[in-house]
Predict the 3D structure of the following.
Amino acid sequence: MSENELEQLRRRIDELNEQILDVISERASLVQKIGEIKKQNGAPPYDPIRERAILDRIVEKNQGPFNTETLQHLFKEIFKASLNLQEDDRRKGLLVSRKRKLEDTIIDINGETIGDGKQRLIAGPCAVESYEQTRSVAEQVKKHGVKFLRGGAFKPRTSPYDFQGLGVEGLKILRQVGDEFQLSVISEIMSANDLDAAEQYIDIIQIGARNMQNFELLKAVGSSNKPVLLKRGLSATIDEYMKAAEYVFTSGNENIILCERGIRTFEKATRNTLDISAVPILKQETHLPVFVDVTHATGRRDLLIPTARAALAIGADGVMVEVHPDPSVALSDSAQQMDFQQFDAFIDAIKPYGLYTQA
Ligand code: PEP
Ligand code: MN
């Protein structure tokens, strides 16, 4: 083969490469258009029957030199890339996504704002155990100029034999104490049946990690006019988490606070693994405020200060912690709640890192 002939063949290959690029790009644009139509019709992007039919047709037309398996493999790669394009477009389409709304969502709760750059604290006992216990914690919360009091009334416990919470009675106590100290109150519900009571007694409805993908519950709180704090699921990816928030949003409730609370990994040194980089990712990808629950993320009192500092430094809109008058006798999470002295030290340690409090 002469030098000249090789040159010519290579030039022809270059031309063909360009043609393949043109054709493959045109195909991608068509796939995007099809994706749009499917979205409007509510159809899923992946259609295995159609994919099988295309592959069969290609195999039928094949005259070599590639064998069937090689051709199928090549085309499957093209299908995969096309499907990714459609999924990217869908993700762009999420209403909670920053691509759909550039400005930060700012949530007003009784005149206090969340998501406006002031880094807030939500503090309170793991569970509302009694009026006296909740009141004594609220007093400490108030003393430090913190405006949000938490307390579980419906407790998601791993064992059915463990304390399940006081139920609606707990919500009433929280409301009474909140009113006494002018604090906004937040509590979890686990069932849509408790939504009416939640709307009557509390200011922010929490959806716990175990219910992040309880889609009926998400739709129910989506129909409420109370802000929702949605915890990240124990093993939820960021994509799944955003889609869970989308359920609340598309059901009509745009006041959503996200809360990273640690995810399950192989690591045993902490109760969960705090995925700190989820904070800037969620801040970039969504327009919603993002909190970090350092108590449940670590399960360790000695790690609350460093992780809360990290959360504030990385740009979280706030931090959540648990405080109890006497953690050793707490009915839940006794190993990780702070007593009042520890809470004082915690506040002192994180204030210089940007925590916003009011006198
Ligand atoms: C809680 O905040 O009371 C709680 C149970 O947290 P999580 O759902 O994150 O486990
Ligand atoms: Mn707890």
Summary: The first strand starts at residue 107 and ends at 109. The first helix runs from residue 3 to 41. The chain has a mean pLDDT of 95. Strands lie at 107-109, 112-114, 120-124, 148-150, 184-188, 204-207, 228-231, 256-260, 290-293, 318-322.
